[in-house]
């Protein structure tokens, strides 16, 4: 399966016409908007679904809570606090983030993140989609060098070892890291045209691309 990983659009309407890749699935890992409005989230998701590829999405910490309802109404598959199976691959997700200093609209305490994921993940989960990256990795470092990811997401990964964790949130930490058997991919800020193509056939491979 080849996945287009998109995150941190922050209100930007992406055009995928110059994407020279055969994609099986689009995964949007949050921050579709920049504090709303939900109508903009709907417009962006409708555009992505127009490419006739299944789209899975969850809100980020900068999205309004009502974005969950918009995802479900737009023809996109909601994976916030949800587990699904698509094309034989088990996927689960949790949006928003652990608490930030900025009091953004969609934040959760670590205990709630852990308990929610514990209820939906299983040992045969292939893809864990989160907005926040796991704590103390290469993909959760802000410019100061501090690690600001979620300790609960890290704990879940250590306990369940999904094949891949697709995450976002920390724009400057676009990249790949490894926790045990889990490959962690922060796909980068799509509002700058930065996205990732993730190939799950055999080993996890990631190709960094830029789109308009």
TrEMBL record:
Gene Ontology MF terms in the entry: hydrolase activity
Domain annotation Calcineurin-like phosphoesterase: ranges: 1-172
InterPro entries, A to Z: Calcineurin-like_PHP, Metallo-depent_PP-like, PAE1087_MPP
Pfam families, A to Z: Metallophos (PF00149)
Name of the protein described by the UniProt record: Metallophosphoesterase
